Amino acid sequence: MSRVLVVDDEPQLLRALRINLRARGYDVDVAADGTAALRQAGAAPPDLVVLDLGLPDIPGVDVIHGLRGWTRVPIIVLSGRAGSQDKVEALEAGADDYVTKPFDIEELVARIRAVARRVSVAGEVTRADVGEHVVDLVGKTVSGGVRLTPTEWRLLEILVRNPGKLISQRQLLTSVWGPSYQRETHYLRQYMAQLRRKLEKDPAHPRHLLTEPGMGYRFQP
After folding, report:
1. Residue 55 to residues 64, 104, 171, 172, 211: CA-CA distances in angstroms?
2. In angstroms, rounded to a whole number, what is the distance separating the alpha carbons of residues 42 and 73?
3. What are the structural domains of the chain?
4. Helices 34-43 and 60-68, packing angle to 10 deg
5. Is residue 140 helix, strand or coil?
6. 4-aspartylphosphate is carried by which residues (predicted)?
7. What is the pLDDT of residues 144-153, one digit of tens each?
8. Which residue from 66, 182, 183, 199 has the fewest beta carbons nearer than 10 Å?
9. By percentage, how much of the chain surpasses pLDDT 90?
10. Do 126 and 182 contact (CB within 8 A), yes or no?
11. Mean pLDDT on 12-20
12. What are phi and psi of 152, to 5 degrees?
């Protein structure tokens, strides 16, 4: 992954990101609004997009929809909004991750690298370490004699197959229980608690099965 398209209407931030990402070896294209972003992405398809949600011409979510109409390029959203709903909408539209403003450049770079690793092994995840346990996605087993219910397994499998990616509550509920369960967030709390008790060394302070409050869950390898 080498070409990054940065979309933001703040000139100083745009300049800072361009300088810092280029210093780390990335080719960087920039756009100050959504229309320019879509045009730039079509002219020179990026390997990753860093996208501000608050753009002056069209909403960032609409830019995500526009990109998702023809490409699966990873998208990391930048959001300066305090509420989680905008981030949830961005994730539902197809964003891969988000970073809240103000942010440290090292955090953003770490997210970019995590997405790059995930894309490079997409479709190849067959096993994962969760604490002291090895999850075998092919054999559908967990080391150490851990037994999972079918629902626990399905939930864990979705997270493990997307290492580092934030999976929204709605996505998980729809995938595991069906579209009529999109509001039953207590199901997720219950089953995630069960998975942590079985797999995490310290369930009260999980290191791998993480909650992003109000938004979703993430498997951190």
Report:
1. 12, 21, 26, 29, 28
2. 12
3. 3-121 (3.40.50.2300), 127-219 (1.10.10.10)
4. 20
5. coil
6. 52
7. 999 999 899 9
8. 183
9. 44
10. no
11. 95
12. -60, -40
Query: Given a cut of 90, is residue 31 above it in pLDDT?
Result: yes
Residue that is written with structure tokens 């905008």 in the block: 86
Say what the pTM is.
0.64
Joined together, the tokens standing for residue 122 give 């997409």
Give the pair of three-digit tokens for residue 93.
Answer: 């539209």
Which of 92 and 8 is assigned the larger pLDDT?
A: 8
**H helix intervals, 141-202:** 150-160, 169-176, 185-199
> What six digits make up the tokens of 145?
């004699």
Contacts of 133 (CB under 8 A, 6+ apart): 142, 143, 144, 146, 199
Q: What is the mean pLDDT of the chain?
A: 87
